[in-house]
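for the record, two folds in this file. i put them one after another cuz i was lazy. first one right below, seq on top, structure tokens after. the second one comes after a little note so u can tell where it starts
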Amino acid sequence: MEPHELKESQLEQEIPVNRTGIMTHPELSAELIQGAKETAPSSEGDAMDMAAARAEYLAEALPVGSPPVVLEVSEDGENLGQHEGLALLLDKLGERLAFERQGTRLYQAFLQKYESLNVEDGAGPSHDELQHICEEELEHFKLLQKAITKLGGDATVQTPSADVAGVLSHGVLQIVGDPRTTLSQTLQAMLNAELVDNDGWQLLQEVAAELGQNDLEELCGKAIEEEQEHLEKVREWLLSMTLDQASAMDEDDLEEDEGNGAARKEAKQSEKRTKSPKPKSSRSSTAKKKKKK
């Protein structure tokens, strides 16, 4: 049977109950802790040995990729060696390029979820707003491609910082693409991405200014303005949706309390109606008859 063919009753049965907490069963939690203490470790050593092993890996590990090589050439064509500053700039440009590529995919995935859920306009984002941000993320990606090429770099190179940025944003993409996450949970992930994105652009602008790349510095300034707008919108949407959820929960609790109160009142009234009147005592009736005589 396909997932969409499941009946409502079947879906309700599959909804899991949160059993992660142990505080409701202190005797079982004490037993669990005791069992952990009595279980022998699977390997020898302690935290100090683990730290020593990590130190060995750190000493022997190779770096994450290698920076792009950019040669500095004099006016007469003489090779002056590697341009270290420009190599660093291209590394950070590659980082932003990777992040903007991932940012475009994030908003595309967000739009797909939004459309699939048939969300009505409310406290959260609208389809047009999400589409607008997605298009700006893609435009930033194209601008970075041109900037790298203008500096003599290769926009297809996976720089070390780009590699790290890809791993960093992978978790955010998993949350956004997960069919189980709600829109507000998706916005929480997007907020993390936008915070990193804003700081990344500001860092790139500072590096460009330090190396005298005025055109790139100006490009970064324009991108920062747009990214700050993205950040503020995501913050606003997340706050509005969270407050709406809190308000809805309060209303549900109030309705439940009112319903329970009405049910109790109706039960009492029903109990009174169903009670039969007490029968008169025959002894009392006989006494009254004797008195009349």
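(here's the note) second protein begins now
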Amino acid sequence: MFLQRLKLATRDRHSALERQLPLLDPTLSHEAYRQFLGRFFGYYAPLEARLDVSPWWGQIGLDYAERRKTPGLAQDLIALGIAPAALARVPPCRELPDLASSARLLGCLYVIEGATLGGQIITRHLHTHLGLTPRSGAAFFSGYGAQTGSRWKAFGAQLTAYVQHSGGDDEIIDGANQTFATIDRWLFAKPLQSWSLE
């Protein structure tokens, strides 16, 4: 089954990224969490701008509009005290995954859709340790709420059907690994320039 092959082929990069994430640290502060959300916003905003204009959606058969992550991030940052106008000043990531084919785009989506599953654990942690709910700063990690599991299964079914019909196995794997790598470099490899919260 291709999904199992994809999971195994991306396991090392996925595990390396998860080990560095501080979001389940019991000492995580509100300020550290807010700054980390800003980093995620700096990655997802330019990535989703590219996804929005991708020519591959017809081949994939997926409506991404209802899966966008940037609105939840913006909602969280504003709930945590960031002025809406300051969101435009969040430094954007310039090194994004290659989305030059429908297969590569699917590899990218595998990573960002898969992250909604892990987000359920993070959401519970944020509620327990910081008192946050999806309405008060944890919307991004709550994903699709009660529908997260069913939406992941639906995406997996579409990905499997695409591979069976069109192939592109290696490109999907490469796109997923590149997405993990660019997220990792953006979040951890270099400090971000400062941005005003006002």
